[in-house]
Amino acid sequence: MEQKVIRELSLKELLERLEEEKKQLVKMRLNHAVSSLENPKKIQTYRKTIARMETELRRRQLEEMSQNKNK
């Protein structure tokens, strides 16, 4: 998922999507431990997507904090 798409998501959608991505990553890791995946690079892709989502959440928190501080 691209950063541009992540920024367009609402907070609720972003949190739901983040939870889904984390569950999928855990599932993939378990499957990879039992038997090798067809494409193990997918694990890395999921990790990067999760990191992008968490970064966007943090950016929004900091933005909100700075707006509250200015008031």
* C-alpha Rg (nearest Å): 15 Å
Domains, number = 1
Uncertain runs? none
Number of strands: 0
Alpha-beta classification: mainly alpha
In short:
With 71 residues, this protein is mostly helical.
Task: Explain how this protein is built.
The N and C termini lie far apart (35 Å). This protein has one domain (3-70): Orthogonal Bundle (Helix Hairpins). Helix 2 (11-34) packs antiparallel against helix 3. It has helices at 3-8, 11-34, 41-70. The mean pLDDT is 93. It is mostly helical and 71 residues long.
Structural key phrases:
71 residues, mainly alpha, Helix Hairpins
What is this structure's SSE topology?
Elements: H1 3-8, H2 11-34, H3 41-70
